[in-house]
Amino acid sequence: MTSFQAADAVRPRDSSAETPTSVARLNETIRDFIASWGSVWVEGEITAWNVRGGAVFGRLKDLSGDAQISFRIWSSTRARLPADLKVGDHVVACVKADYYPKGGDLSFGVSAMRHMGLGDQLERLERLRATLRAEGLFDAARKRPLPFLPHVVGLITGERSDAEKDVHRNAELRWPQVRFRTRHVAVQGDRCVPETMAALAALDADPEVDVIIIARGGGDPQTLLGFSDERLVRAVAAATTPVVSAIGHENDRPLLDDVADLRASTPTDAAKRVVPDVSEQRALVGQLRSRLTSRLTQRIGHDIAQLEQLRSRPVLRDPAGMLAGRAHDVELQVARGRDRVQRGIDVHARRIAELRATLRALSPAATLARGYAIAHRDDGVIIRDAAQAPSGSTIAVTVARGTFRVRSEGEIPEASSADMSDRERI
């Protein structure tokens, strides 16, 4: 910047409340001061482009903030500039400040303007792409599947655009009952990113919207820069509703394509990927029904054959005949069992009789029945010696039928005992 040293310039010390300077002199001082700046190259985005009488009056916005300047391009200069300059373009311009003393207006005259080098832009985009990829925003694992048949499709696109017509036409051809919630936004320029983000937030908050399509009918890389904006890309990554990117054609790939849950090559492709084809689904249902009918017919036929085979067996053909034969066998086995049981009973009955006879022969009762008796004292000791029953002792005598008591008169002499023995033997 050249230092300002005009001799007639007004300085703060040259004026006071008693000796004020004039507005004209102040404006002339400002004009001369600004004129000393010379020309500068500035980078920004065109936000206004109005043609009046061959000249262009517009505004240039800072890329990273809200600062703006007004500029003008005279017709002679415009003839040397690219013919495709328009709102939304990222440009560099050579400007020189002009100050009009009469109105106190500041503007910038443009002597040169061109598109910002695409290589520089692509380099910045690739750096951002690498950063987002490192954060995992492009990972396939975080991408959500699209619903098979969305109840409502959210559509973000330009108003009355070909992209909107393509999406509606192709979706309705495939599924006539499909419903849309459409939000119209600017698809290029400085309004593109904020309007698209606002539409995305509104559709993402709508509980009826099952999938969101962001569509634009392609364009040159300059016009697609808004869809590589980091703010928009991060908003799409944070959305809870699946998002389909349908921005450009095959050769166009803004960052939105990488972060979206599905990338469609065109709006038409997006409609085909989001909405199923009713005719294809009907054909598929028909095929499944045919296969199911065939499988069921085959299974039923197989089961009928198995049933007929079982019914043809003798046991099922004449169940009573088999039972009759088995009944005779059962009766025979029962008779044999009864005979064997009876024989066993007879054998054991005879054995019991023999044992009973043996027991009776050995039983003291049989001996008593023949006239013998058992003498025992009151303490239960059986008397086997006459000395055990001294004279005057009481003795219990057990015979075949009962027990009675006797009083001993002493031992009988042996002769008498011998005579008794003889009588017993008789």
Automatic annotation (TrEMBL):
GO molecular function, one term: exodeoxyribonuclease VII activity
Keyword match Nuclease: yes
Pfam families documented for this protein: Exonuc_VII_L, tRNA_anti_2
Residue stretches making up the Exonuclease VII large subunit C-terminal domain: 137-331
Domain OB-fold nucleic acid binding span(s) in chain numbering: 22-113
UniProt subcellular location: Cytoplasm
InterPro entries, A to Z: Exonuc_VII_L, Exonuc_VII_lsu_C, OB-fold_nuc-bd_dom
Keywords: Cytoplasm, Exonuclease, Hydrolase, Nuclease
Residue segments, region Disordered: 1-21
Keyword Hydrolase: yes
Reactions listed under catalytic activity: Exonucleolytic cleavage in either 5'- to 3'- or 3'- to 5'-direction to yield nucleoside 5'-phosphates
Entry's EC annotation: 3.1.11.6
Biological function: Bidirectionally degrades single-stranded DNA into large acid-insoluble oligonucleotides, which are then degraded further into small acid-soluble oligonucleotides.
Stated family: Belongs to the XseA family.
Record text on subunit structure and interactions: Heterooligomer composed of large and small subunits.
Listed HAMAP family: Exonuc_7_L (MF_00378)
Protein name per its UniProtKB record: Exodeoxyribonuclease 7 large subunit
Organism field: Microbacterium aurantiacum
Source organism phylogeny: Bacteria, Bacillati, Actinomycetota, Actinomycetes, Micrococcales
